[in-house]
Amino acid sequence: MTLSDFTQWITSTSGAITSAIVMSTTLYGIIHVKIIKPAQKWLAKVNDLCNELKPNGGSSLRDAIDRIELSLERHNLKMLSLQDFQDLCLYECAPDGSCTYASKALCELFGLSHNDMLGNGWLGGIDEKYRIAAFHHWKECVDQKVPYNNSYIVKNRKTGDHINVITMAKPIIDSRNQISSYLGIVQVTKNE
Questions:
Q1: For the range 158-162, what are the long-range contacts, defined as Cβ-Cβ under 8 Å and sequence gap of 24 or more?
Q2: Cα gap 7→11, rounded to integer Å
């Protein structure tokens, strides 16, 4: 093969070589995005989990279970302690506003069963004119990590009575500086 033959061959095949390079680069990009990156993310999660569960590199599985059991025991003791104050309108809510505990007196004030008070059911006991504003104010207080203080009218679902109330709730901040819940009380100010 002469130099001119070689130059002619290179010139005639350079388009095919360029196409092959572009195709292989594109194929590599697709493989990287669709397979390699998700696999790397998954492996990172597995490594994080392994580090969390191995002794001396995080905590053992037994330690994690012990922490959960201790947390549940504390929660149960707190709920049992609150039963001593059943004549007070006490509640506990998660940061999202869902009720996790309502005293018997609070359920009676709202005219709702304990199960109906849980979650966002408590909102059904607030007069429609105040419901949205009460919930928005809740969200603002959670965002700012400040106590929730508000007044609104409760419409008792059993009797239909309208009752003016004030409520005060304090955020419970955990060790990660996050709100774990709000503990609060509702007081009747006057009936309409």
A1: 158/111, 159/111, 161/191, 161/192, 162/127, 162/191, 162/192
A2: 6
Where do runs of H (alpha helix) occur along the chain? 3-31, 37-53, 61-82, 104-110, 114-117, 128-144
Per-residue tokens: 162: 């309208």
Judge residue 104's burial from the number of C-beta atoms within 10 Å of its C-beta, 0-12 exposed, 13-18 middle, 19 or more buried.
middle
Ramachandran assignment for 58, one of left (phi > 0), alpha (psi -120 to 50 degrees), beta (any other): left
pLDDT means per 10 residues, the chain with 192 residues, are: 61 56 55 63 70 59 74 71 70 90 89 90 86 90 93 90 92 87 88 54
Say whether 127 sits in a helix, a strand or coil: coil
Helix orientation angle between 37-53 and 61-82, rounded to the nearest 10 degrees: 70
Which pairs with CB-CB distance under 8 Å and at least 24 residues apart come from 171-176?
171/141, 171/142, 171/145, 171/146, 171/147, 173/145
User: Which superfamily does CATH assign the domain made up of 87-191 to?
Assistant: PAS domain (3.30.450.20)
**pLDDT at 135 (0 to 100):** 86
pTM above 0.90, yes or no: no
